Structures are given as C-alpha cells and as structure tokens.
Amino acid sequence: MYASKGRLRVHLLQYSNLGTCSKPSCLITLLHPRRTSLPNPFNMGNLISAARRSSTSKSNHPEAVVFSQQDITATLKQEGYNDRDHGRITWKTLFSSDRTSTSALTAGIATCPPRREGQPRTFGGHLAPHRHAHPEIYFVIRGTGIVNVEMIEHRVEAGSVVFIPGNAEHSVRNESLTEDLVFHYCFAADSFKDVKYKFTNDAGAMGRISTSNR
C-alpha cells in the first residue's frame, strides 16, 4: 500500500514472509527518487564505483602518446645517413622507449630523396643493404621505389606494405626523379637501441653513426 502527502510520495512495502504486522518496524519506507533531493539509493553503488575509477585512472592506466603533423615536422629531430656505405636517407623517430613513454614497439618515418636525371642510382635516396635480428614492417606513405629483400626486388608505391623477416638482408631505394620516397617503419622492440644494424658494406660493423639510433 502507499500514502501520499503533498508532493512527497511515501511507499510502504510490507515483508510478505512476516505475515500481518501492524508495527512500524515491519515496514520499509522508501522515498520516491523523483520527488526528493536525497540520493537515489539504487544508484549509490554506481556513483561509488565511478568515483573509484576516476581516482585510480591516472595511476593504473597507461596514457597514449600522440604527435600531431606539426609536432613531427617542427619538433622531432631529423637524423640520417649521407654516404655510400650506409645510404642517403633521413628519418625521424616517432616512438622509442629512450625518448617516449612507450614500450614493445619502435617506429619512425624515413625519407629517401629523388635522384637527378643522369645520376647513378647510388646518388639517389636509398638505404644500403643491411640486416638486423628484429623483423620490420614498411608502409609506404608517398612516392615509388624498390625494396630488395634477400636479392629479390619488390616495387612499392604509396599504400604498399612490406614485411621483412628478422636477419633478412634488405635495402630500399627511391626510383623517382622528382618525388621523395616516404615510408613508415616499425619494429617489435622497446627502443632503437635494441635494434642492431649490420650493414653489408661495413664487413660486420654495426653501421651506426653518432647522431643515429639506427
């Protein structure tokens, strides 16, 4: 049964397993949630859970690392090679645990400039033959070129993706006379420091330069 008084509705619910009882102690009184400013008791658990999630979210959950196009262009350091043994290529590191709050993946964007007409291919943008233990993925963003994996040439263009097995010798070169070859690369490694490059022309040396993590 229920009784109404003014704008406040009071519900009186009687326990069925207590039989007939005329004492107020046998009755449960609930305030109608729509007619009072008191908290709805049915929602208290959700409110408490939300408060707990809010207080612990910053400490218990990892945060994303995001770079805008402006960040990549103006802020991130450009590195590269410019010699016959290693290549003519520049790159910008996006994610590497020694520079960013990231783990498990290392990634960046590399650019091979075009060569001028009449120049040998080695004068154009390229990354010389090399290998490393970590598998690698290339995703071509712009331009056209050749990716050579274990002496097999693969023609690539914007939208092409290449998987390079670990320890496979590979190289990249730009085939265009007018356009950069730009590609994204990614390793399953915490940091570039974990990826040991061995260039064929280095006769077993690591092939790194002082300004590079490659």
From TrEMBL:
Q: Which SUPFAM superfamilies match?
A: RmlC-like cupins
Q: Which Pfam families match?
A: Cupin_2
GO molecular function, one example? Answer: metal ion binding
Q: Which UniProt keywords apply?
A: Metal-binding
Top-level lineage group: Eukaryota
The Cupin type-2 domain covers 125-178
Xref: PANTHER family: CUPIN TYPE-2 DOMAIN-CONTAINING PROTEIN (PTHR35848:SF6), OXALATE-BINDING PROTEIN (PTHR35848)
Name of this chain's protein: Cupin type-2 domain-containing protein
Q: What is the lineage of its organism?
A: Eukaryota, Fungi, Dikarya, Ascomycota, Pezizomycotina
